[in-house]
Amino acid sequence: MGFLIVVLVLVAAFAAYKYRVPLMAKVLGQSETRVRSQIERKKRR
């Protein structure tokens, strides 16, 4: 049972990372392009 919970947490973390731009845009109430540009700006530093 514990193994199943660990696997579910890992899958959820991977999905959240893969879909981070749409998720963050929805949570923050901003457009996806604005969120994506902010992420790209932080990567360039």
Protein described:
There is one protein chain. 87% of the residues lie in helices and 0% in strands. It has one domain (2-44). The chain is elongated and about 40 Å long. Helix 2 crosses helix 3 (32-44). The protein has 45 residues and is mainly α. The chain is built from three helices and no strands.
Concise summary:
It is built from three helices and no strands.
How many helical elements?
3
Structural class: mainly alpha
Low-confidence stretches: none
Biggest sheet features: none
Helix fraction by DSSP (H/I, runs of at least 4): over 70%
Integer average pLDDT: 93
Number of domain modules = 1
* Sequence of secondary-structure elements: HHH
Shape: elongated
Radius of gyration: 14 Å
How many DSSP-defined strands? 0
Q: Span between N and C termini?
A: 42 Å
Strand content range: under 5%
Ordered list of secondary-structure elements with their pairings:
Layout: H1 2-18, H2 20-28, H3 32-44
Name the descriptors.
0% strand
